[in-house]
Amino acid sequence: MAAVNRDGALKGQVAVVTGASRGIGEAIAKRLAMEGASVVVSARTVEASDHFLPGTIKQCVADIEAAGGSALPVRCNLADPGDRERLIDETERAFGPVDILVNNAAVTWFLPVSNFTEKRYRMMMDVQVYAPFELTQRVLPGMVERGRGWILNISSHAAIHPEANAPGGHGGTVYGMCKAALERFTTGLAQELHGTGVAANVISPGLVATPGVVHHKLINDTNKDRVTPVEHMAEACLRLCHGDPAQITGRIDYADQVMEEFKLTAAELV
User: How far is CA 27 from CA 22, 23, 55, 101, in A?
Assistant: First the structure.
């Protein structure tokens, strides 16, 4: 039965997970809490009435606390500079300096470039590129000073460059551009931080049946056999947030590869 181990691998550490009201972010927040971290669960959806998809940060926190863990819900619209600043401020007031930052939040429209409005383009870049950059800037000084920290950015197979004559191209150009930028930011950051005790990694989930993926109808008869359980992504993310940062940094990983490399077994989530 799933439970929180307060003396687990992340005992005494503070984690922030963005986009954690549902799906992959929720799973990551729960898995980190299960290993003893105090977790700030952040997203825009606080109450069920805030979004048409199921899941809220309040419910995620309630599940963690019911299992004996420590968590705090913080509403944050990552497109809002004030909310980005407040997220870290509230985390530090409640739990102390951030040891683990998981940049998972995303807002996405699947439209061809010719139909993409400036407002939507800017929001996607704000949430998926600039917000991870700014949040990282906010927590890095403390991490470097303490000689310990983990930055984990959530990417996608969409970051891989497509062939011009390949079938598909379902309006994912801007999404892929955001994720490619996030990956290059991560590897560059890892290079800058080498030797400081702070690691930076990026991981992609593969195809997970999250509420958003189901809503966008991204699972079909041709790929339904490749759906990855969300627990596998959570377990792989946990592995990239502890250990020797000199050995586990600058990685562009996929959940199934991490599971296989480290011979992991996915834990049931609280």
Answer: 8, 6, 11, 15
Q: What is the spatial order of strands in the sheet that 14-17 belongs to?
A: 70-75, 38-43, 14-17, 100-103, 149-154, 198-204, 252-254
Q: Is the pTM of this model over 0.90?
A: yes
Q: What is the pLDDT of residues 54-98, one digit of tens each?
A: 799 999 999 999 999 999 999 999 999 999 999 999 999 999 999
How many angstroms separate the CA atoms of 199 and 195, rounded? 9
Q: Please report, for the domain that includes residue 199, its CATH number.
A: 3.40.50.720
**Residue 4 covered by a domain:** no
Is residue 270 assigned to a domain? no
Helix extents (H) in the chain: 23-34, 57-66, 81-94, 118-125, 131-146, 173-193, 211-215, 230-239, 255-261
Residue pLDDT, tens place only, 141-177:
999 999 999 999 999 999 999 988 877 667 899 999 9
Any domain includes 3: no
Q: Is residue 2 part of a domain?
A: no
Distance CA 69, CA 5 (A): 8
Q: Note if 175 is an active site residue.
A: yes
By residue range, what is the domain housing residue 153? 14-261
Give the active site residue among 121, 130, 175, 254: 175
Contact assessment for residue 127 and residue 105, using Cβ atoms and an 8 Å cutoff? yes
Q: Across residues 98-107, what is the average pLDDT? A: 97
Torsional sign, CA 112, 167, 153, 265:
positive
Q: What is the domain count for the chain? A: 1
Greatest pairwise CA separation for the chain in angstroms: 53
